[in-house]
Amino acid sequence: MNRIIFYGKQNCCLCDEVRSLIEILKSNYEIDVKEVDIEGNRKLEQKYLVEIPVLDINGEELEYRQIDLSTIRERLH
């Protein structure tokens, strides 16, 4: 089982795009997704505010400039 922690927020176009990529991949991979809304969490806002969306895929963090379908797929098993 693949584990993805998705750091994002509501009303974020890039976050919506990444959600769509994950849904596409769910048809071929077993993926457990935990979505974390950074808004209201001071520590996460400081860390990720200008970097979202961020994915932690099986312990490896990818920031938004690295996220595309093939990059996510390479990290899944």
Task: Explain what this protein looks like in three dimensions.
The chain is an alpha+beta fold and 77 residues long. The N and C termini lie close together (8 Å). Strands 2-1-3-4 form a four-stranded mixed sheet, with helices on one face. Helix content is 35%, strand content 29%. The chain has three helices and four strands; from the N terminus they run βαβαββα. It has helices at 13-26, 42-48, 69-74, and strands at 2-8, 31-37, 54-57, 60-63. The longest helix has 14 residues, at 13-26. It is globular, with a radius of gyration of 12 Å. The mean pLDDT is 96.
Strands of the biggest beta sheet: in what spatial order?
2-1-3-4
Mean pLDDT across residues: 96
How is the main sheet built?
4 strands, mixed
- Helix tally equals 3
The structure class reads alpha+beta
InterPro entries: Glutaredoxin-like, Glutaredoxin-like_YDR286C, Thioredoxin-like_sf
Protein name: Thioredoxin family protein
Pfam families: Glrx-like
